[in-house]
Design goal:
The complex is a heterodimer of chains A (100) and B (200). Chain A is of the alpha+beta class and 100 residues long. Chain A has a single domain, classed as Orthogonal Bundle (Arc Repressor Mutant, subunit A), CATH 1.10.10. In chain A, 55% of the residues lie in helices and 18% in strands. Chain A is built from 4 helices and 3 strands, in the order H-E-H-H-E-E-H. Chain A has a 3-stranded antiparallel beta sheet with strand order 1-3-2. The relative contact order of chain A is 0.21. With 200 residues, chain B is mainly alpha-helical. Chain B has one domain (27-199). The chains are: A alpha+beta (100), B mainly alpha (200). Chain A binds chain B through residues 5, 15, 18-19, 22-23, 25-28, 34, 38, 88, 91-92, 94-95, 97-99, and chain B through 2-4, 7-8, 10-11, 13-14, 17-18, 20-22, 98-99.
């Protein structure tokens, strides 16, 4: 029997990273405020988790100024989308395997 | 807890987050309450102009007041739109043309514009009695349609509007009353329930 647990992506073990990635899968770009609203996290917490995802090449961060306000938005990269899909598949396989 | 149970929970969590984030949830219940009040005021005013009689429509046509009433209805519509936008802005602290907003406008807009065009056609052919019931019916269908993309509770208000619209077609003499019930009472009830449920 194949062990699907090995297919799970360590990057998505954290609930926060999993959540951020879920948002990025359904939205082209996601504003920092939206992540904060939906995940109910502190600013620093979001930044550090996003940084991890950015280092892995899963997320692109855009920082710009709109007027005088800094505006940060995130976008999932192609690699990020693929990694997340594989992670979901692994989760599904784990469920299927146990219900056999 | 087994791995599969954990996986199932994780998947459900992801689904919920994706769904919640794509729905337009900045629609405030308070805007519903205000819109309902405008509609009741408009109904009261039209009723007063026609002496609260069931032949209000014949009276309106006989006394050449159709334009006044049209003006009041369009004014109510305009004020309601502004109120909806204003409360959305207050709740979300911003107005964005993002995908939930686009979906809301698109799925609400198409049935509404269709109904609006139909009302213009009724008007051009002097089918005055069909206009109020049509606004109820098409607004109800629009709400039912858009409820998939915002508060799900909106579908009950939609069904209520559709029922009020059909009754208004059935009893043209009571069309104004049905209109006041639909646009006035239902908006207030729905607005209050959303407000108490999600915003308090």
């Amino acid at each position: 029997m194949k062990n699907y647990i090995d297919d799970l992506n360590k990057a998505f073990e954290s609930r926060v990273r999993l959540g951020i990635m879920s948002l990025l899968m359904v939205h082209e770009t996601v504003d920092f405020i939206l992540v904060k609203e939906f995940m109910q996290l502190t600013d620093g917490n979001i930044a550090s988790h996003v940084q991890t995802l950015e280092k892995l090449g899963y997320v692109e961060v855009t920082k710009q100024f709109i007027g005088k306000k800094p505006h940060t938005s995130y976008r999932a990269t192609e690699a990020g989308r693929k990694a997340f899909k594989n992670h979901l598949e692994a989760l599904e396989n784990l469920i299927k395997q146990s219900s056999l | 807890m087994s791995d599969s149970q954990k996986s199932l929970e994780t998947l459900q969590e992801i689904r919920l987050l994706m769904e919640r984030s794509t729905r337009f949830l900045s629609l405030s219940g308070l805007s519903g309450v205000f819109i309902g009040i405008y509609a009741l005021l408009a109904t009261g005013y039209i009723g007063w102009r026609t002496n609260f009689q069931t032949d209000w429509l014949e009276q309106t046509i006989r006394t050449n007041q159709t334009h006044t009433i049209q003006f009041i209805l369009l004014g109510t519509l305009f004020l309601s739109l502004l109120t909806g936008i204003w409360f959305t802005y207050k709740k979300a602290h911003r107005l964005t043309w993002d995908s939930p907003t686009r979906r809301l406008v698109f799925h609400l807009g198409i049935p509404l514009v269709t109904g609006g065009i139909l009302c213009l056609i009724w008007q051009s052919q002097n089918y005055w009695s069909l206009i109020l019931p049509s606004t109820l019916l098409f607004y109800g269908l629009a709400l039912l349609n858009v409820s998939k993309y915002t508060w799900e509770d909106l579908q009950y208000m939609g069904l209520g509007m559709i029922a009020a619209g059909l009754l208004a077609f059935l009893w043209p003499n009571y069309a104004l009353l049905c209109w006041g019930f639909g646009f006035g009472v239902l908006h207030i009830l729905y607005g209050l329930s959303i407000y108490l449920k999600y915003e308090k």
